[in-house]
Write a structure and sequence with these properties.
With 258 residues, this protein is an all-alpha fold. The chain contains eight helices and two strands, in the order ββαααααααα. It has two domains: 110 residues, no CATH class; 111 residues, Helix Hairpins, CATH 1.10.287. 74% of the residues lie in helices and 2% in strands. The chain has a two-stranded antiparallel sheet. α1 crosses α6.
Length: 258
């Protein structure tokens, strides 16, 4: 993933000019490649009646795309001046590249596509966060459903054997409800579950923050409206008092005349 400090905004790092330039040049091509990866992986998982030859070519294609991302990570690591900082800030990339068994999670790079939607939603920070949360939930949910189905369905003790089961399990897990009617039994499936639970808690925290921000803004707007109304009324009362004083002075002057 590229360095970002706010959703949808690219920040060039002045300390890493070569790395920033490389990321800007490769961002769109790698995003397109991630789209192809997600489609290919979904086809491989869901199209179980494919011939062995088709399955072989699908696997070769997926591994080839994974290799491209691995090479791209190595190139970015080479371009980075501060290696330790780069590894820490791109820890997710390193995990996905180093653990091929969860390489499908690389599809989460599709989050960069939301930059296009982000520019159309509005300029408020809360609006951008809302788009990214919705997109992240969709991408994480799809990736997790495919991954857990791929890991579970061939195990004799599995209870997640269809895509519908996988989607239901993903929804109950990412929302932290956890009914327990569907659960992974394989090691890889449990790894996906652990990542999804952590991601679900994080997403709920973001959603809660967005809702709280909305309420605070609405309350602040109501308070400002009330204050403005009070100020307007006070101004009107002052004008009336001043007018009454003027009238009283004029009346007093007329009475004092012989």
């Amino acid at each position: 993933m590229s360095d970002t400090y706010a959703p949808g905004v690219r920040h060039s790092d002045p300390l890493e000019p070569r790395l920033s330039a490389w990321e800007e040049r490769t961002d769109l091509p790698l995003t397109a490649l991630a789209v192809v990866f997600l489609i290919g992986y979904a086809w491989q998982v869901l199209h179980t009646s494919a011939s062995p030859t088709v399955v072989l070519w699908q696997e070769i294609g997926l591994w080839a795309i994974w290799a491209v991302f691995a090479v791209e990570y190595v190139i970015r690591f080479t371009l980075a001046r501060r290696k330790g900082r780069f590894i820490w800030r791109h820890l997710f990339d390193l995990i996905v590249v180093a653990l091929p068994m969860v390489r499908q999670l690389r599809a989460l790079r599709l989050i960069t596509i939301l930059k296009v939607l982000n520019r159309r939603v509005g300029t408020t920070f809360r609006g951008r966060i809302g788009v990214y949360v919705a997109g992240t939930i969709l991408l994480v949910g799809l990736s997790a459903s495919l991954a857990v189905l791929d890991a579970e369905r061939h195990d004799p003790d599995a209870n997640i054997t269809t895509f519908g089961d996988a989607v239901w399990w993903t929804m109950t897990t990412i929302s932290t409800v956890g009914y327990g009617d569907r659960y992974p039994v394989t090691v890889e499936g449990r790894l996906v579950a652990a990542a999804l639970m952590i991601g679900g808690i994080a997403l709920l925290g973001v959603v809660t923050g967005v809702i709280a921000s909305w309420f605070v803004q609405k309350i602040a707007g109501a308070e400002e409206s009330i204050e403005e109304s009070i100020r307007s009324e006070v101004k009107g009362l002052r004008a009336e008092i001043a007018e009454l004083r003027t009238e009283l002075k004029q009346a007093g002057g007329q009475i004092s005349r012989p």
